[in-house]
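REQUEST ID: PR-0412
SUBMITTED BY: lab tech R.K.
PRIORITY: routine
TASK: structure prediction, single protein chain
INPUT:
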Amino acid sequence: MTKTELLSRIDSKFRPMMVQFLPANFYSYLYSNGRKSFINMLASEIPQNVIVPTRHSKILWDIEFQSNLFNAAGMFKKGEAYYTVAAQGAGAYLAGTTTARYRRGNEKKGILHPFASYPQSAAALNWMGLPNEGHEVVAKRISGLDKQAGCPIGVSIGSSPEDTGLTALNGVLDGFRLYDKAGADFIELNESCPNVVHEHDNNSEGGLDSMLVERLEFISENFLSIRDRNLPVILKISTDTEKELIPLLINKLSELEFDGINIGNTSTDYESARTMIAPNEMKTFDYFTKTFGGGLSGRPLKKKSLELSALASEYISQSNIGREFHVIRTGGVENAGDLSRSEKAGVALNQWFTGYFDAFSLRGHKLYEELLRT
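STATUS: complete
OUTPUT:
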């Protein structure tokens, strides 16, 4: 048993009591700092390679994915731990989200990158604020990776919240170009991080936020339409997105030569989520949302992420998209049953975050092997 496997196993035994009995501010402080240390340790461990059954592999956009499940953005912000997850059996690896420049991230009440886990509810909250080293640094790190068969490298890109207008757009464009040069296999455009400000406009273009449309059109004109190699670009949206907007978004994305949609990012619909939070975790949940806000991940998003992903998949199958365009599901994915339901709904790939750490506490580095065995 490795160090991270042991720590995770011990933590899973005590965390339900800690979230209930520790003061909410101290619990949030403890796990905000502990999470970063754990990720660093995890990235240093490379387990024995898992052989994923070929029935789980997929070829999408002419890229081989050894399975249909891999980490969501926000887990490995610095481009670390690629060899770890590739050996575990992940279908791909996603770095970031990164921005044009280094970002320290959010800090409040003496807590840097606030994060809290709710084990009985299989949920987590974070108010990290896109901390990262910047496109250039992470792109250089990725360019030096030795790619493993069946585990392509993706990168999540976002705009710097302190930038606006053309400055912000050019920062995103720089990221696309740097990761293209670094040899990334696919890119995810993060337009839905709840922990930073995104420019928006109450005016709409065909029902869509007009400023979002302008940003998508800029990326299309200055990168997508002039790509000289196979580099799929996927738009990531929130699970809080109204279902009426899904067909409109897909039409616009396919028109602008995007290659897929990821549904979705974390949620800020705390009132709906409260019905799915365990009573003895409610005190800490309310403290975090009232003090920091933040994005909710995990099981409370399961139903909505599947519903929206199924809607998107059905619309694509019934429409004449005219290009290879796939749906990725993120939110509440935690077991083989979730993968099966995604498959039946027409979802091509799945990402997990909270579910990954819960599975790791039970199965350690064999988490993909045991999940994909069924």
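NOTES: The chain has one domain: 3-371.
REVIEWED BY: pending
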